[in-house]
Prior knowledge:
This protein is mostly helical. It has helices at residues 17-28, 32-46, 55-70, 87-124, 127-158, 162-169, 173-186, 188-207, 212-215, 217-232. The chain has a domain at 27-103 and 159-232. The radius of gyration is 20 Å and the shape is globular.
Amino acid sequence: MNPTMESIPFSRADISPLAFLSEAWARVKDRYWLFLGITAAGLLLGSAAPLALLLGPMMCGIYLCYRRQAQGLPITFDMLFKGFGHFTESFIASLLMLAASLVLILPMMMAIFVVIFAGVLSGIAGHGAQEGIGTLGCLMFAAIFLFVMLGSLLIGVFFTFTYPLILDRGLTGLEAVKLSFRAAHANLGGLLLLALVNALLTFAGLLCCYVGALFVLPLTFGTHWICYERVFGIKET
Length: 237
C-alpha cells in the first residue's frame, strides 16, 4: 500500500548551514567528480525542455544518488536517469512549483516593465524631470529585483523536500508538495538560513567565470539531502 502524507512524520531539525556544508563535503569528496557530473548534467538536462518537463525526473535521479551514497550503496552516472521511474509525479510537482513561481514573478515582471517604460518617458521629458524619474526608476528596479530574488528563494525553501519525498517515500506530486510545505514551515528559520548561505556560495561561484557555480552543486544538493535526512529520515528498503 502506498504511503500518504498523513502517515509520514517529520521533525523540527537543528539546521546548521556550515555544519551541513562540512558534512556534505565529507560525504562527496571521495567521489566529487562523479557527483559533479551527476548534478551538473541533471540541472542542464532538466532545464533543456519547456514547462519543466525533464526537471522532476532529473531531480529525482540526483537525489537517488545521494540516497544511495548515504546508504553506502554503489553509485554510477546512469543512475541519474532512473529518476524517470517517477516521471509523472515529479512532473506534476514541477508544474506546481512553476505555477507558484509565475504567481510571484509575473506581477514583478509587469512592475519592471512599468519602471522601464517610465524611464523611456523620462528621456522625452525635460532634463530635470529625467534625473528625478531616472533615479526613482533605478531604485524601484533594484527593489523589485531584490523582491523577486527573495521570493524565488522562499518558494525554493518550501519545495525543498518535494522531490526527495517522491523518490524516497513514493508520494504523489501533490502530496509531496503539501508535505514539503508543512515540513518547511516547521523548519523555516534554518532552511532560510541554509538557502541564503547556498545562494552566496553559488554567487561566489558565478564570480569565477560563471562555471564556478557548477562546482558547488555537489555541496548544495548534499545539504538539501542532509536536511531531508534530519527532518524525515530515510525509508528503509
